[in-house]
Amino acid sequence: MKLTRKDFRHSRKGFSLVEVAMAIGILGFVMVTLIGLLPAGLSSFKQAMGNTIESQIVQNVSNDLLLSNFSVLATYAQSPTPQTYYYDNEGTQLPSNTGYAYKASIALTAIDNPNSPITYYNNTTTVPPAYNVTITLTSATDQSVYTQQHAHIYSIIVANNGL
């Protein structure tokens, strides 16, 4: 059987130039949109990481305060300047402020209520039943000239545990 040119014309398979151009145009539009969303996703990821590290730092500081002797907190409360601790990018406490990423300042205020049923006496001084602890957490990256420094303030109450 002999094949003619007419037989080849009907048996050709593939895409036309218009179909290929439309597919490339749609694919290009989708890729540009996805690449355009990438910076927004990365900034949200960075903010979520920062929030996670901040919450870990606050949890670590508050756990240390809740488990410490109440007499140690009394010395912190008598100090005129707040206690300051420095942390790196991963939330690990640093020995000094060299290369810190987060700074936690801790201020204590005695909760004195004369009508409180719980009043402790230590020799001649009255020990407050609890302290209001304010933890102010700032990030080193928020301290640039162009942006206003943001501080996150957390507050906990530490009761006298009798130690």
The SSE order reads: HHHEEEEEEE
Strand order of the largest sheet: 2-1-3-6-7
Low-confidence stretches: 144-148
The average pLDDT value, as a whole number, equals 81
As a percent range, the share of helical residues equals 40-55%
Structure classification: alpha+beta
- Work out the radius of gyration: 32 Å
The coarse silhouette is rod-shaped
The tally of strands reads 7
Distance between the termini: 106 Å
Beta-strand content bin: 25-35%
Describe the largest sheet: 5 strands, antiparallel
Any idea how many domains?
Answer: 1
How many individual helices?
3
Summarize the structure in words.
This protein is an alpha+beta fold and 163 residues long. The protein has helices at residues 5-11, 17-67, 70-78, and strands at 83-87, 93-94, 102-111, 120-122, 125-127, 130-139, 151-159. The chain has one domain (16-159). 41% of the residues lie in helices and 26% in strands. Strands 2-1-3-6-7 form a five-stranded antiparallel beta sheet. It has a two-stranded antiparallel sheet with strand order 4-5. A hairpin with a 2-residue loop joins strand 4 (120-122) and strand 5. It is rod-shaped, with a radius of gyration of 32 Å. The N and C termini lie far apart (106 Å).
